[in-house]
Amino acid sequence: MKTGIRLFVIFMISGIVVTFSLSWIIEFYKYQKRLVPLDRVERLFDSAVRTIKETYPSEDREEIARRVLDEYHKYKPNRKKMLPIDVFKVIQPALSVVNDQNFRLYPPIEPVYSVLPFTVIVVDGRAIVSSSAVEDIKAGDELLEINGRKISELINQLLPYTSGENYSIREQQLSSLIQLIPELVDKNKDKIGIFYRQREYNIKVKSDGVEKTVVVKTMTAMSYPRESAQFPALPTRRPFEFYKEGDIGVFKFGTFTLSGTIYNSYRDFVTNTLVQNNDMKVVLVDLRGVASRDFTIFKELFEHFVDKKTSVERWISIVNTAYNMSVLNKYGVDFEKTTNELLRIKFFHTFEPREPFIKADVWVLFDRYTSNAALDFIYTFKKLREDRTIGEPTLMKINHTTEVDYKFDDSAKTSFIFPSAVINEPIQHDAVLKPDYEIELTTEERINYVKSIEDVMLNKALEIIRERAVKR
Questions:
Q1: Which of 6, 111, 211, 228 could form a disulfide with 133 if both were Cys (CB 3.0 to 4.6 A apart)?
Q2: Right CATH number for 240-471 from 3.90.180.10, 3.30.450.20, 3.90.226.10, 3.40.640.10?
Q3: How many CB atoms are closer than 10 A to CB 298?
């Protein structure tokens, strides 16, 4: 009897050991599959440097490439293999010195990553919780400290992983980075385990004017969307919508691309809205925060408000190389051979009347975050309609990089974005787009807009439009 019990216990223990051993081997295999060989890391970085030297739209591209190489040597790895997040930590700080938001790596997100159980939006150095997966931290709270580290310290630590001409542009990229702090900042070494190990964080927030410290646990990136769906989040902007503010029709846009079914949805939205509101006399196009790269979005809307074909002369610069052949052809240049010359090319933004035509007074509202094709449209619009723009100066320059392309590296699980052209208007190099009527906002007013408490800029814009209508 004792022998039988002993054999049973041995059998059970052996089974447990074998099960855990196999599970650990499987996890070890998965871990090994995730690792990126050093030669792939070098290849990804070399591709970025080659892109600068051959296609980056600047006369100083050789000097820019040299600065990137110098910075890379500060972070160059000495390991033969590394995880995708470590690839990002090695390469992005080097690309950051280009100071171009359109030239960078996106942080990789793998399902197994440990993330903080909330996301934030950073406004003027203040981090506002935008969504949360825990009860003790709610959307709208202000994040003050993480494990005793002030948010300002953490932001400075994360800035090398961002790209842009100035801090205000870079802080827009901090949301995902702050949630990735357990991987980006606090991870000392790789661990292989059968079960996910949660880590505790002391989080200090200001909620309803009261400061408090709560203890939260990390969760996986895969589980965060499911867990956070149980709690309210700050409102997100729709791709496009229309509403009326009294006698003023407002088209409000978010950032989106005209791909897949959204192209037909957008056209139907514009056409149906205009048919149903064909008696509008005043229209406000709200492009605050819009970073869409497709000029067609704004062109097709505006064409419903023009009664004759109209063209505006624009200028762009592109490096004359075979790598840019398709972009050169797009702007009317027949490529013959590579000269590596930075060509300055004239092109036109042309608007043709589109049905239904609406005879309305069109205004445009934009803020400092408006960029890319939205900025290009407003610059063109200002040449056609004088005294019809409201908002604040943009952070992005008028002569900004454009024609952005993407390369996804399957091994490093990251996307590399880079521009092939730069707007080259005959203006001061660092000039930004300024509105005809400027509205100044405090940090608190910006935060209230993010929280959907009050839209000060829109209210002031509507007042300006109505005052102008009375004077006419």
A1: 228
A2: 3.90.226.10
A3: 24
How would you write 22-50 as a 3-class SS string? Answer: HHHHHHHHHHHHHCEEHHHHHHHHHHHHH
- The reported pLDDT for the residue numbered 463 is 96
> Buried b / exposed e across 440-465, counting CB within 10 Å, b at 16+?
ebeeeebbebebeeeebbbebbbebb
Contact 350, 422 (CB under 8 A): no
pLDDT digits (tens, 9 = 90+) for 253-301: 999 888 878 889 999 999 999 999 999 999 999 999 999 999 999 999 9
Q: Provide the H-helix boundaries in 385-455.
A: 443-450
**What CATH homologous superfamily does 114-228 map to?**
PDZ domain (2.30.42.10)
pLDDT tens readout for residues 215-237: 999 999 999 999 999 999 999 88
Residue 60 has a CB neighbour count (10 Å cut-off) of 11
The length of the chain in residues reads 472
Beta carbons within 10 angstroms of residue 267's beta carbon: 13
| CB proximity list for 52: less than 8 A, separation 6 or greater | 61, 64, 65, 68, 98, 103
Amino acid identity, position 174: L
Q: Which residues belong to CATH 3.90.226.10 in the chain?
A: 240-471
**Which is nearest to 109 in space by CA: 208, 179, 4?**
179
Cβ 97 vs Cβ 48: under 8 Å: no
| Stretches in the chain below the pLDDT threshold 50 | 24, 29, 194-195
* Cβ count within 10 A of residue 384: 15
Cα–Cα distance, 296 to 224 (Å, whole number) = 35
Asked if residues 348 and 294 have their Cβ atoms less than 8 Å apart, the reply is no
Looking at residue 394, its amino acid is T
Specify which residues 362 forms β-bridges with.
283
Rounded to whole angstroms, the Cα distance separating 197 from 112 reads 11
Q: Which residue type occupies 252?
A: K
What residues have CB less than 8 Å from 181, skipping those under 6 apart?
116, 146, 154, 158
Cα–Cα distance, 151 to 142 (Å, whole number): 10
Where in the chain are all domains bearing CATH 2.30.42.10?
114-228
